[in-house]
Amino acid sequence: MAIHSLTPTPDQYSYVFGGVDPLLSVKPGDLIEVSTEDCYGGRVHSPDERPSEVVPFSELNPVSGPIEVEGAEVGDVLAVHFVSIVPARAHAISSTFPHFGALTPTHETAMISGALEERVWFYDIDLESWTATFRARRSDYEVSLPLDPMHGTVGVAPASGESRLVVTPSTHGGNMDTPEARAGTTLYLPVNVPGAMLSLGDGHARQGEGEVCGTGLESAMNSVIAVDVVKGGALAWPRLENDDYIMSTGSIRPLEDAYRISQADLVSWASDLTGMDTLDAYQLVSQLGLAPAANVCDPNYTMVAKLPKWSLKSAEAYGGVHRRLRSAAEEYARR
Amino acid sequence: MAIHSLTPTPDQYSYVFGGVDPLLSVKPGDLIEVSTEDCYGGRVHSPDERPSEVVPFSELNPVSGPIEVEGAEVGDVLAVHFVSIVPARAHAISSTFPHFGALTPTHETAMISGALEERVWFYDIDLESWTATFRARRSDYEVSLPLDPMHGTVGVAPASGESRLVVTPSTHGGNMDTPEARAGTTLYLPVNVPGAMLSLGDGHARQGEGEVCGTGLESAMNSVIAVDVVKGGALAWPRLENDDYIMSTGSIRPLEDAYRISQADLVSWASDLTGMDTLDAYQLVSQLGLAPAANVCDPNYTMVAKLPKWSLKSAEAYGGVHRRLRSAAEEYARR
Amino acid sequence: MAIHSLTPTPDQYSYVFGGVDPLLSVKPGDLIEVSTEDCYGGRVHSPDERPSEVVPFSELNPVSGPIEVEGAEVGDVLAVHFVSIVPARAHAISSTFPHFGALTPTHETAMISGALEERVWFYDIDLESWTATFRARRSDYEVSLPLDPMHGTVGVAPASGESRLVVTPSTHGGNMDTPEARAGTTLYLPVNVPGAMLSLGDGHARQGEGEVCGTGLESAMNSVIAVDVVKGGALAWPRLENDDYIMSTGSIRPLEDAYRISQADLVSWASDLTGMDTLDAYQLVSQLGLAPAANVCDPNYTMVAKLPKWSLKSAEAYGGVHRRLRSAAEEYARR
Amino acid sequence: MAIHSLTPTPDQYSYVFGGVDPLLSVKPGDLIEVSTEDCYGGRVHSPDERPSEVVPFSELNPVSGPIEVEGAEVGDVLAVHFVSIVPARAHAISSTFPHFGALTPTHETAMISGALEERVWFYDIDLESWTATFRARRSDYEVSLPLDPMHGTVGVAPASGESRLVVTPSTHGGNMDTPEARAGTTLYLPVNVPGAMLSLGDGHARQGEGEVCGTGLESAMNSVIAVDVVKGGALAWPRLENDDYIMSTGSIRPLEDAYRISQADLVSWASDLTGMDTLDAYQLVSQLGLAPAANVCDPNYTMVAKLPKWSLKSAEAYGGVHRRLRSAAEEYARR
Question: N or C, which end of chain B has less CB nearby within 10 Å?
């Protein structure tokens, strides 16, 4: 088990997927200890600062990478297993933005009415109790929330020579902002260029479904990931797997089209794994599927479609790569 | 504890909310044992029949009611607690329709390409093991699913003199098709006319989130509900409460607007219950909220927004009516 | 040529389509001189009043009718020809509303950010020069606009026993708010109940496409219409015809679904009229069709799809009823 | 008046906006005679071929360029005037695609029902009569359509280091597919990188509004454009101007958000040109504006918002650059 380390210097962060030279090259099966910055680039130091003033728009959401995975070829599937995701600082930060989030006019849902107040919350992170403390800004309300760390942004170089801003999730992954991208989960991404060119960032100490205000508990992270390559099996959209569920995603607007993409993909995946025809698989997904929102605030919205693995009986996705990466993660933890 | 019974004769079912004379009149605090027909009006007797041929469109989704709740006045909140929901027949039925469901052209998402095959599935219902058995129609795949009975359609007479088809959920409730409407849950509906005029039907032995194919495990039900009235507190959209969550809903298209309505309503509710201002409540909901799809197939789509009650500390919604109805349900069960 | 007159008293206006007793009964081929009130119910008397304060929500947009058309049976098509539409007062009124219009949060696109300022504009109407004068409220800008009078709301009783608020356009017509509903145009509506039960109102002295702020030049109108019945030919959605175009409409959200409905209907109509198959008609509509927005502010949005009649050669819609009603209109004008 | 010529060789076409080296460098005020290939890359030679089989997806819609405009700096506005657009071949081609167009399931509006038949139409182009002849494929219907040539795809390098596929319109322009991009019109694009890096292609001999089937009369073109640079005045979205209208665009999903963007931008532009405040400008646009669909088939949909220039009185956009380029075009024509 080769273990790499990636700790980018400030000037090494990148802000697009695609067209960026790799910072690190690894082999399928390797583990990487990677540190990521928060979505504000670490520039917000107090709840009295305004993120929109201290962080230029084009420098929001820095990602660590790209990581080149040797042998990954166009048409393969890149498996990224989240071994651990641990907040790196004593506080996480959340904020509203004047023109970002689901409940205010934005650049995409343009209006001429006034925008939202920009307000910042600092949460104390306590790794011991595994909690973050929320404190209201205009009253005394205070409550401790369980940590549930995840990466909002994980993706590869897009197909067809595109370079996409880190904030826009699409077929290459990116800023999907799903709480499902937590430790213990494997994310499947399409390989669109040789080496795949994986980058990740935008850690959240926790996040509600939909990320309605536009930010989670934004947190620099010390994470460990394991990567592998599944030959062939070209993916249309990112998928996830944990011990209990297979999951499909779709990232587009309007939200029903994100739902459609994720559900159609899950139907197709269930059909492949069970041998049922499309309509029978559609029926099973209709009755057993879960459909949580991931984000309803980014330039593309993301829906997740989940099917419990017990309904698939003995079928295993991608030759059991999730199970093998899970074992590697346990081995890493035992060292 | 007064216990009423409502078993409509075939000609007593109704197909609109609003403008219908009540079948029963009850008092706040009463329980009603009510039987409901399946969405096919009980007319599909074999998986080889085509629902679109044996059920006229205007007779889909019959509801039992209206039930007049004495003393309910315009501007009040009607609380409907689901005491128990039990499948009434040995099988539940699901089907695709040529122009219904999220993954086929419909009358609303009109296309000129071909529609989906109409296929019917019969599930064996086993109340003993509390399961329904799924059998693929074109292969041998078979799997047992846990029952999770719910009512897809529960609503009251709309405001402003409207009468709405039972299939279209809106501010008056109706065909929201959320799996959250299960036993143990209280549904809050606005009172738009004197007596509220509650109707319900469309039982599902279980249903996935989004009801992607357009139908759940459609099942006639023997249900028990308890009703109460909260004076004042005018609701904009239906809300739900169970022992763990408060929940808001929104029913409209596109799906992001259903999400927006449900989230904005939950923010407002959380603000009312905690005394926090809107932006602080927005922040809490953003980090703790769940956002599952209810239906993405009906003429209006429904999203649900959920907040765990522990985050509200000692605050109780609507003066604890859920807790009291829960007790009444337990008393009923102990008889 | 029988000529009727309908001038409702204030208490005779109605606010829903469906379930209302007729004010007048006419025969196919008859003309009706009808007066309609403005969308504010005539209650706004100065630009310094706030419509939201002087008009209760449920009394916005009064319509004149229903007019029962004898012999109209379920499944027929009602043809409504606009003979003339003339502003009845010396001024027309427009306004923003805090939660209405495309560029502010609304009850449907719910947000927690602030709503728009409510502002009122009075336009001087000059029938001589056929203009309305716009005057900015916060500067000296002033410009005369040509009148182009139309009815925003024209519809019949809905199918299946529904009653719908006048503000929501759907398959029964209603508040489509298309500038195409001007004098010289024939509107085709489905007959859903015996007698059709036609109502109209919401005159605009003119209106931009999309009615982006939520109101046109709202104006009481003295209008003349001619009605006829085409036996059979059941319509799915309202259609229009003038001397140059056939036009289909769709009213739903999101706007692309309104576009899809209107385009699919126009393809079907063009196929019927030319004998081409669906794909060939699709091709013709794709290259010649116009697609203006009607409204993007009401509870359902409306798109119009237009095809020039020269491309249909000698084919005539509905047996030439538009041509015949046009002649009757000319005869009326010559009296 | 410097006149350049750009006739790319087959390997010189590009398929993304951004990150491509220029083929030509010109100065503000220069004219360019440019030839463009059709969206099929010239590979469809008969109505019996299937475009999806003879053209790889990543080679659809080649563009000619980039053209570097010297002195164009980030934050400037690039003015592109269409002097003339003339079909280069004796036929134009249109087709359906199985998963493209507004009335069939697509990769974005994913469904599991069957896709559309792929059918191809060849139109005879007659420059003398300025017509294209449509012939139905499954019947004898035939009709001549007036030519109205335009470029569907015109754009510059995107901001923030993005490279975008040519098929996706956004803030940088691209595949907006509006019939307004015809000779006599000036298109304004934001300058996001030094030199702007203008590319164009996707000529249509004509196209309906919305391009509902996904293609216009696809045609290689011999075009002449004139370019100029307006210093400062940073544009959020592409705008257009002809002798009669100023026009704003928005390209996004859902279609109402494209409408919102285009209308909000037009309100802002009208406010700038007349000195009215935002709400007064909103009122004027609401009553005078036109709102045709451009495309409802590409990965982002495009709406256009138009305001007649007479309503702006003497105000001239961008210091009269349209008028000056119009004069240069006339001078070119007189040579």
Answer: C
Query: How near does any CA of chain B get to the CA of A150, in Å?
Result: 13
Mean pLDDT calculated for residue range D310-320: 97
Which residue range forms the structural domain that includes residue D209?
3-334
Beta strands in chain D (DSSP E): 3-6, 16-17, 24-26, 31-36, 63-69, 77-87, 91-95, 120-126, 131-135, 142-146, 150-155, 164-165, 173-174, 186-190, 198-204, 221-230, 239-241, 245-252, 293-295, 301-308
Contacts with A6 (C-beta within 8 Å, 6 or more apart), sequence order? A23, A24, A32, A33, A34, A35, A64, A65, A67
Is some CB atom of chain D closer than 8 A to the CB atom of B115?
Answer: yes
Whether C43 has its CB under 8 Å from any CB of chain B: the answer is no
Of C111, C116, C254, the CB nearest to A103: C111
Residues of A in contact with D257 (CB under 8 A): 108-110, 253
pLDDT for the residue B1: 78
Burial of B19 (0-12, 13-18, 19+ CB in 10 A): buried
Q: Report the SS3 class of residue D328.
A: helix
Predicted confidence (pLDDT) per residue in A19-76, tens digit: 999 999 999 999 999 999 999 999 999 999 999 999 998 899 999 999 999 999 999 9
Q: How far is CA D329 from the centre of its chain?
A: 19
The rounded distance, in Å, linking the Cα atoms of C176 and C186 is 14
Q: Do B58 and C160 touch (CB under 8 A)?
A: yes
Which of D104, D110, D254 is facing B113, going by the closest CB pair?
Answer: D104
Give residue A16's Cα distance to chain centre: 15
Chains touching C (at least 3 CB pairs under 8 A) are: A, B, D
ipTM score for this prediction: 0.98
Best residue in B164, B171, B175, B262 for a mutation probing chain C (most C CBs within 10 Å): B164
How close are the terminal C-alpha atoms of chain C, in Å? 11
| Mean pLDDT confidence for D192-211 | 98
- Chain B nearest-CA distance from A72, in A, is 33
Q: Is A194 helix (H, G, I), strand (E, B) or coil?
A: coil
Tally of domains within chain D: 1
**Cβ contact, residue pair A162, D165, below 8 Å:** yes
Using CB atoms and an 8 Å cut-off, which of residues 293-312 of chain D contact chain B?
A: none
Residue of B nearest to D98 (CA): B113
Instruction: Give the Cα separation of A117 and A120 in Å (integer).
Output: 10
Residues D114, B114: C-beta atoms closer than 8 Å: yes
CATH number at residue D287: 2.60.120.580
CB pair distance less than 8 Å for A253 and D250: no
Residue D58 has pLDDT above 90, yes or no: no
Q: How high is the pLDDT of residue D253?
A: 98
Could you tell me the two tokens for C248?
């289909």
Closest residue in C to D301 (Cα) is: C256
Tell me which residue of A170, A142, A132 sits closest to A251, measured CA to CA: A170
Whether B133 and chain A come into contact, CB under 8 Å, resolves to: no
Which of D103, D106, D113 to mutate to test binding with chain B, by most B CBs within 10 Å of its CB?
Answer: D113
Give the Cα-Cα-Cα angle A153, A154, A157 (nearest 5 degrees).
120
In a domain, C222, yes or no: yes
What pLDDT shows up at residue C78? 98
Asked if residue A13 belongs to a domain, the reply is yes
Query: What CA–CA distance (Å, rounded) separates D204 from D209?
Result: 12
pTM listed for this prediction: 0.98
Q: What is the pLDDT of residues C84-98, one digit of tens each?
A: 999 999 999 999 999
| pLDDT for position A245 | 98
Residue B278 parent element (H or E): helix B278-288
Residue A303 lies in a domain: no
Q: Residue A273 falls within a domain, yes or no?
A: no
Out of C15, C16, C108, closest to residue B257 by CB: C108
Contact A234, A171 (CB under 8 A): no
